[in-house]
Amino acid sequence: MSPNPPRKIIHLDMDAYYASVEQRDDPALRGRPVVVAWRGARSVVCAASYEARRYGVRSAMPAVRAERLCPEAVFVPPDFVRYRAVSRAVREILARHSELIEPLSLDEAYVDVSTNKLGLATATEVAQAMRAAIREELQLTASAGVAPNKFLAKIASDWRKPDGLFVIRPEQVERFLEPLPVARIPGVGKVMEQRLKELGISTVGELRQWPAAALLERFGRYGQRLHELARGIDEHPVQPDRPTQSISAEDTFATDVTLAETEDSLRRLAEKVWAASRRETRVARTVVLKLKTAQFQVLTRSQTGSTPPASCEALTATALALRERIEDHGQRYRLVGVGLSNFREPEELPQPGLF
Amino acid sequence: MHIRHVRNELLGALQTVVGVVERRQTLPILSNVFLEARDAELVVRATDLEIEMEVSTPVQNLKPGKVTAPARKLYDILRGLSEGAEVSFEIAEEGRMLVRSGKSRFTLATLGAEEFPSLAGIQADTQVTLTHKALRSLIERVSFAMAQQDVRYYLNGMLLHIGPQWVRAVATDGHRLAMSELALETGVKEDLQIILPRKAVLELARLLDGGDAEVTLSIGGGQIQVQLLNLRITSKLIDGRFPDYERVIPDSQDRRVLGQREKVRAALSRAAILSNEKFRGVRLQLEPDLLRIQTQNPEREEAEEEVEVELDGEPMEIGFNVTYLLDALDAMKTENFVLELRGPDASGLLFEAGESTHSKYVVMPMRL
């Protein structure tokens, strides 16, 4: 077990954020199914109000599908300027309690309240105070999870959503994790879930039976992480203002294209990503290619080189090489994306030294 | 203390030393200037504990004495008074100095002269004599390459390497290096290397005139002192080991470019406009009679320049920080220059064509 005293982490997640902001600002939308999405045949849902979710509308689904599921829904184009302003206000509320805030996106953040500024007795009280302030001052609701680490706090915030608070105390961790489906573990997607299932693992309790070495052998470094997460161990600190994790650009095609037809787009995206990456002081070691099939299956291929791509041409070449690794069964694609991640301090500057 | 003199002379004295006074001081007295009336002179002194400058100017000495007064304020007051006006400084009461000129009166807060730190009292082991012109030339040809606030503190200055019959000035920021050598009639028996701090180098460059008058450098006890007529500059030396510069100056290269300095300089500075602002990269393509210069920035804007040159050797392509090339070309004086190269990963060497001053500029290439 960790030798340090347990940390107190809050994961705060705004409920149906963009849709809630729209409903708050336009009384006519309250109580009605609201879908935030751009106009356009190929746009996807940015957010859906809880009224709309009852019809099965979810974030990231095509707007057309949402319309079919819920014909009475009111479609609103997103207004990120306003959402960002509200996010700042939320952040100010969080900062009353702790400066250790790690925003994940506009609508969620981790806060380390192992010590809190106002001297409240428990992290639960801090989370309650945050949620109350958000409700009173911003007329919005947020769900919060309180736990000894980020991994558990994130699961906890989802546990009583919407407008809920859930606390996992250090002594409750094992009991809580035991029946949890492995799919709830961050990083376990459909593929990993299937691979675990083939080993007879579907709950975290079952995962815990496996020794670290066996997981390491099967899943590499992620196996080590699985082993720790299954025991509720996650030492990742809350990182205020964390630096760029990745830079990427995507194109959704007006009509689905073949693999070969993605090339122009891919070259353009590589240029865009390269230009953006030049504003970073660090260099990216991993190049990622992403494709989404007409059936919404997401395929990614990545390459981590010993040296980061040194030019736009090199990045483009790597992205094209990654495309070769996609098995082409003649399917069509609706989206292509190029990304850089794994940013590191440059071990080697472009300007070598004299001495 | 009570002195009287014309405004221009007093302003000149203040102007000479006021650059040493740091704007933000930890020690309050360091924002003051030391004033002492003795015999028929006023001695004006300023220091930042690293460098000290003392100038004396003849004045009408009505009452000997010494005091320290706020340097910037006194300087600004003198500057604001009309040219040719007569000005007097007088210790009026404890802790106050009165500055009077015509119908203007200023009362400045003073601090005791005994508290004012001094670097003086140097034990000179070595003395080297040069002309103003020679010392100024050495500084002008290399000082641009000094590092600025580098953690390798010994690079934040200029090396003076004194041999039996020559003196070399060397400066480097770790990516490029400048070296200039002059013959000395009387050098030192054993090689001596000292590093002058950046501030002392810049002050010297400002104060040396280009004449043939001699100037003597007295070195000892970790300090250097330079006497220039009525001005004495004393500076601590940087206590560190300068990198082995001789090792990084390439001696034989297999490609030699001869170009017109002004033409190439102009083409490079135009191309520099569209170089990456952070890395300042420029691509040089060398062909038998042609130098092609290319730059590109993250916005995909591009510049291309072609300049006639003479190339002796195989064509090649190499990247450099354009600022380093421009600095070197700017420091040269001749009409033509030479660029010697070995390969795209090896440092380039620039020098004046057919010149006897022996200045060399080494620039590391850049991966583009």
Structure description:
The complex is a heterodimer of chains A (355) and B (368). Chain A is built from 13 helices and 12 strands. With 355 residues, chain A is of the alpha+beta class. In chain A, strands 5-6-1-7-8 form a 5-stranded mixed beta sheet. Chain A is globular, with a radius of gyration of 22 Å. The model of chain A has no long low-confidence stretch (mean pLDDT 88). With 368 residues, chain B is of the alpha+beta class. Chain B has 3 domains: 2-115, DNA Polymerase III, Chain A, domain 2, CATH 3.10.150; 126-247, DNA Polymerase III, Chain A, domain 2 (Roll); 249-363, DNA Polymerase III, subunit A, domain 2 (DNA Polymerase III, Chain A, domain 2), CATH 3.10.150.10. Chain B has a 12-stranded antiparallel beta sheet.
Explain the layout of strands and helices.
The complex is a heterodimer of chains A (355) and B (368).
Chain A: E1 9-14, H1 17-25, E2 34-37, E3 45-48, H2 50-53, H3 63-69, E4 74-76, H4 80-95, E5 101-105, E6 108-112, H5 123-138, E7 142-147, H6 150-157, E8 165-167, H7 173-177, H8 190-198, H9 204-208, H10 212-219, H11 221-230, E9 246-257, H12 263-277, E10 283-293, E11 298-304, H13 312-324, E12 333-344
Parallel strand pairs in A: 2-4, 7-8
Antiparallel strand pairs in A: 1-6, 1-7, 2-3, 5-6, 9-12, 10-11, 10-12
Helix pairs in contact in A: 4-5, 10-11, 12-13
Chain B: E1 2-6, H1 7-18, E2 32-38, E3 41-47, E4 51-58, E5 60-63, E6 65-70, H2 71-80, E7 86-93, E8 96-101, E9 104-109, E10 126-131, H3 132-142, E11 157-162, E12 166-172, E13 176-183, E14 192-197, H4 198-207, E15 214-220, E16 223-228, E17 231-236, H5 245-248, E18 255-260, H6 261-272, E19 281-287, E20 290-296, E21 302-312, E22 316-321, H7 322-331, E23 336-341, E24 348-352, E25 359-363
Antiparallel strand pairs in B: 1-5, 1-7, 2-3, 2-6, 3-4, 4-17, 7-8, 8-9, 10-15, 11-12, 11-14, 12-13, 13-25, 15-16, 16-17, 18-21, 18-23, 19-20, 19-22, 20-21, 23-24, 24-25
Helix pairs in contact in B: 1-2, 6-7
